[in-house]
Amino acid sequence: MGVNDDKQESVKVIVRCRPMDRKEIDAGYESCVSVDESKGCVEVKLPKTGLVGDSVIYTFDTAYGPRELYEKSFYDIVQSVLLGFNGTIFAYGQTGTGKTFTIQGDKDDPDLRGLMPNSFHHIFNYVNGSKSTQFLVRASYLEIYKEEIRDLLRKDSTKRLKVKETPDRGVHVTDLSTVLTRNIKDIEKLMSIGHSNRSIGATIMNEQSSRSHAIFIVTVESCGVDPDGRSHIRMGKLNLVDLAGSERQGKTHSEGERLIEATKINLSLHTLGNVISALVDEKCTHVPYRDSKLTRLLQDSLGGNSKTIMVANIGPSSYSYDETVNTLRYASRAKNIKNTPKINDDPKDALLREYQREIQHLKQLLSSREMPPMHLKPSNGAGGPDETDGGEEDSTTARDAYLKELQEKLAVEKGGIINEQNMIAEEKTHLLEELKRKDIRIRKEQAQTAELEAKLRSLESKLLGGGTEARVAAVEAQTRMQEEALVQHRRRLAAHQHHEHRMRARVRGESDNVATLQEGFSSLRYEVEVCTSKLKKLFERIQKIKQETKDLQDKHIIERQKQEEIQGQILRNMKLHQLILENFVPLDDQKRLEERAYFDEEVGVWQFNPTDSAARPAEGSFTTTVLLFPPSALGRRRPISRYACLAAGLNTSMRFRGENILHLNLDPLPRTTLDYEPPKLAPQIVAALEAALQDEEDLELDGSPSIFKVRPINKKKRDRQRKIPKHQLKGAHFPESRGLVPK
């Protein structure tokens, strides 16, 4: 690992593509993403088109399908944290592409463990294998939900925390709980507790969708000794960031609470994109870190003192084409960010130095006591059980022997006093009481010593180290050496593969130039073939550039429309407030408000100074003074006595009224409306309606066969029934015309 403090390095970007989901296959979607791990390239094809140049190729440091990636990509950054660097790994992508699985995975299955369990095993294996270095490992877990920071390790995880920046600690979260961990089980338990407290919700794209950004912070402090004998403390911080989904709101059909969550998520991710764009643009002089809580906390990770890796998670389905292209374009920009990682030597906020001072102080207290201190041995987190039990047995034996010796001396003195015949009764009582007080003092001294020893053991148990591991079996040492050699070999292999990818990309880039420099052709046909091939490549490149330009223009139009909507809303609110100020607030009050107003950068809002001081207070010395009303003016605009209150309630006279306000009744106005009257119906209609609404009796039918027996009807009889007699036709009356009507 390089230790050059002035060396700059770029943000590494890793692409991970999950396989096709069963729902996507059943819905008839096609795979539009192909990953070439040997070249480190990701090709995205425009779905349902066969045109030339409808695919975009992105090249990254490493590209993975559904395979392991810790040892090839994450091992170095976790190892640098153990050496005192800051490291950040964050997963980005739309919902359902495997961000949380990349960060957490399945801790019970070694083949499916995610980044967090693998890094925990890496850290504690390194701590247990060290021989002359003490370590202090502590962890914190927070989430950013609706632009509010919450502590996931507290019982009340809904409490809102604030972000502050100080010269000693930099950007940090106030009142964030930090838990010391001794082994892998402790830190995995914290991970499980925090994961159960995270804000998740069901959406169309994922039933267990993360609705917040989560950051798991592991701080590793180490104390080593230089060759000249001086001790130095280094502190590395590892940030494991699981971002929320970056998909559009139209894809999830969010409503209500989910819509508010998606709006806040898109706001923070949009700010993160603005920060990346500002860091890449050399002409930009301002980086908007303070526009969101997420970018404020990741300020060192983006363009600061940290080694950073971005894992871009994408889905292969054609349904997610737009989100996949946006994610890859997002990651392609992040590749150009330059960080300046440095080792954190002797930090001011290191807890390891405080623990060492407290342990030294307790040892001095124990050595200064009359009771001989126990022969304590450092109780390391990696110490063997046999040695710890032996040290406790020795200390218990020494304490019991010393106590027994003192009790025997007191018993001898007490017996001598009781057996003394020549001694006066008062003097004998006085001596016995003195011996009793001495016995109580000795027992109290013993209890205090035991308490100090227990506290010392507790502090020493929090300091992890591998001092006792030097006496482990030779087989374990040999196994550890072989594992280290294997890891080194894998690292060298990964470096060679990365170099090979770069050389291949360079060869592909120079192929066009080489073809251009070739002037001689064996025949005209060969020249035509070469020119045709070059023309096809140029045409494909032009099509790709056109498609990318179109996508960028569409994205720019969408972002501009969003900004115009936000600007319009802000302008409307400003006009409303200005209208209220101009019409309802006096000019003197407006001037006083303008003088008292200042922008609080810590909270990100405008606030007012106290009324007694119009000047902004010095930072760190802000004290809020609240002016209380006197008891006689509670609920009123001016003080008034109790007698005046009673008199004003009983008498309508204006003498005892403190306010010059007349209480008048409202003037009665004539009624302008009528009561509703239903329409009146004729008695015949009412009777018909009542008869129709009455219940009828049940109709009884005889279902015997004699009644419902089917008899065939003769055809002649049927025709005779249909035929109308002639005498009826003659007597039929039809309407006749009356002719012209006379005038």
UniProtKB/TrEMBL annotation:
Superkingdom of the organism of origin: Eukaryota
InterPro entries, per the entry: Kinesin-like_fam (IPR027640), Kinesin_motor_CS (IPR019821), Kinesin_motor_dom (IPR001752), Kinesin_motor_dom_sf (IPR036961), P-loop_NTPase (IPR027417)
Residue runs in coiled coils: 418-462, 528-555
Composition skew (Basic residues), residue ranges: 712-730
Signal peptide positions on this chain: none
Gene3D superfamilies according to UniProt: Kinesin motor domain
Gene Ontology biological process terms in this record: microtubule-based movement
GO cellular component: microtubule
Protein residues bound to ATP: 93-100
Entries under Pfam families matching the protein: Kinesin (PF00225)
Main location: cytoplasm
Family: Belongs to the TRAFAC class myosin-kinesin ATPase superfamily. Kinesin family.
Protein name per the record: Kinesin-like protein
